[in-house]
From TrEMBL:
Role played: Part of the ABC transporter complex PotABCD involved in spermidine/putrescine import. Responsible for energy coupling to the transport system.
An example molecular function term from Gene Ontology annotations: ABC-type polyamine transporter activity
Catalyzed reactions per annotation: ATP + H2O + polyamine-[polyamine-binding protein]Side 1 = ADP + phosphate + polyamineSide 2 + [polyamine-binding protein]Side 1
The organism of origin for this protein: Paraburkholderia tropica
ABC transporter domain: residues covered: 32-262
Protein name: Spermidine/putrescine import ATP-binding protein PotA
Length: 389
């Protein structure tokens, strides 16, 4: 990982010892299994019957707001919390009776938890010394770990002599040097500023991919989860509400909660007035015309539904759109300039505010509307997703 005071990571040959230690076999679909896991704290149930399978070599994210149960689930994997009921297995081994120090798991904490009085290499080798690894092997493994995270030249420094990004590299090397079967990351980027965090996300993914370690990370940052993870689970009130790839969860939310939690969206409440195999029409008090979605749903006519339309799927025009569905008339009430694009807040005649993400190029083609200008919002039949819950 990099920051402003260190050289950027480059692709290279994996240091000897890492690939062999983690194996080169195809990933198993059920390498980590969470089966009907419940965690109670007195009368409070923090995790409610969670089931989850993580593939070998996968980087998986648990995403949710504070108090949703994601960190509690991570701590149960690490052995820092006991399971009230259910099972947790890694590579077929039930961890229920194993204390944290005997689990093939390593956890990288949000605070990094480096020893301030130790050098970088001493911090990285601490766990190996505790296990009684011989001096020659310990030295080689520490050197390999530091080479992997590009911190070899800082081996003799103390943590206070390093930047935040460099300290994170040391914490990662310390976690990987023990060759865990499962690496747990607790809010791994929270201590870094935004610019460094964005560069670090990709570099961390590249390092973990080289090592081949299975990784589960916890974050409340949607962008971080979608940038780093191959799959993610959205959690709410101790349960997984949606699981899939970042593209699946963003483009096809299965509930109003998922649609609002992942990214931003425009929601139109209404009732189904026509449902065919290839389309559905919805009437909403928010718009002067019907909403049209080019796929059918399962449910009776009159059923209340919500249509989710992402801001980047909505365009602005100064002229009335052609067609009899998926548009509304309004006035520009706010503009957030974001560089390559602008976010327009348009108040419709119904009183509802719609957000449209417009690229600078698209705006130049319609003579960039400004505050209090009258505009039309519109979107295609494929832009909306029907939510029934």
């Amino acid at each position: 990982m990099s920051d402003q005071s260190s050289a950027p990571a480059t692709a290279g040959v994996l240091p000897s010892g890492f690939a062999a230690a983690n194996g080169a076999n195809p990933a198993a679909d059920n390498f980590v299994q969470v089966v009907d896991v419940v965690k109670k704290f007195g009368d409070t149930t923090a995790v409610k019957g969670v089931n989850l399978s993580v593939k070998k070599g996968e980087l998986f994210a648990l995403l949710g707001s504070s108090g949703c149960g994601k960190s509690t689930l991570l701590r149960m994997l690490a052995g820092l919390e006991t399971v009230t009921s259910g099972k947790i297995l890694i590579d077929g081994e039930d961890l229920a009776t194993l204390p944290p120090y005997r689990r093939p798991v390593n956890m990288m904490f949000q605070s990094y938890a480096l020893f301030p009085h130790m050098t970088v290499e001493s911090n990285v080798g601490f766990g190996l010394r505790q296990e009684g690894v011989k001096k020659g092997e310990l030295k080689d493994r520490v050197a390999n770990a530091l080479e992997l995270v590009q911190m070899t030249r800082f081996a003799k420094r103390k943590p206070h002599q390093l930047s935040g990004g460099q300290q994170q590299r040391v914490a990662l090397a310390r976690s990987l040097v023990k060759r865990p079967k499962l690496l747990l990351l607790d809010e791994p980027m929270s201590a870094l500023d935004k610019q460094i965090r964005q560069r670090t996300q990709i570099e961390l993914v590249n390092i973990l991919d080289k090592v081949g370690v299975t990784c589960i990370m916890v974050t409340h940052d949607q962008e971080e989860a979608m940038t780093m993870a191959g799959r993610l689970a959205v959690m709410s009130e101790g349960q997984i509400v949606q699981l899939g790839t970042p593209n699946e969860v963003y483009e096809y939310p299965n509930s109003r909660f998922s649609a609002e939690f992942i990214g931003s969206t425009n929601l139109f409440d209404g009732n189904v007035v026509e449902d065919e195999p290839d389309h559905v029409f919805v009437e909403s008090a928010d718009l002067p015309v019907r909403l049209y979605v080019n796929h059918g749903i399962t449910g009776p006519l009159g059923m209340p539904v919500t249509i989710s339309v992402r801001p980047e799927r909505i365009s602005l025009t100064r002229k009335p759109p052609e067609g009899v569905f998926n548009w509304g008339k309004g006035v520009v009430k706010n503009i957030a300039y974001m560089g390559g694009y602008s976010l327009y807040h348009v108040k419709l005649e119904s009183g509802k505010t719609v957000i449209a993400n417009m690229s600078s190029l698209a705006l130049s083609e319609i003579d960039s509307p400004t505050w209090e200008d009258e505009v039309y919002v519109r979107w295609s039949a494929s832009a909306g997703v029907v939510l029934t819950s």
